[in-house]
Amino acid sequence: MTATLPSQPSFLKKNLFLGITPAILLVIVIMAFTFGLHMYNIESIGNANAYYTAAVESMLKSWSNFFFVAAEPGGSVTVDKPPLGLWIEAVFAYFLGVSGFTVSLPNILAGVFGIPLLYIMVKKYMGELAGLVAAFVMAITPVFVATNRNNTMDGMLVFFLLMAAWAFIQATESGKLHWLLLGAFIVGLGFNIKMMQAFLPLPAFYALYFFGSKEGWLRKIVNLGIATVLLVAVSLSWAVVVDLVPADQRPYIGSSGDNTVMGLIFGHNGISRLEGGGGPGGGRPQNGTPPSAPQAGTNPNQGIQPQDGPRQGPPQEALDACANSTQGNTCSFTLPNGNAINGSCVTPPNSSQLACAPQGMIPQNGQVPNGGPDGQGPNGQGGGAPFSQETGSPGVFRFFTQPLSKQMSWLLPFALVSVLLVLFGSRVQLPIESGVHKALVLWGGWLLTCVVFFSMVSGIFHSYYAIMLAPALGAMVGIGFAQLWSWGKDKKWIGIVLIAAAAITLAFQVFASYQYNERSWWMLGAGILFMVGALSMVVMKRTAYLTILASMLIIPMYWTVMTVASDQNINLPTAYSGGNQQVAQVGDDRARLDGGGSNVNEELLAYLSANTQDVEYLAAVPSSQQGSQLVIAGGRPVLYMGGFGGQDDVVSAEDLAAMVANGELRYVLYGGERGNKEEIASWLKTSCSVVLDYSQTSAGNQRDQGMALYMCK
Question: Phi and psi (nearest 5°) for 497?
Answer without folding.
Answer: -65, -45
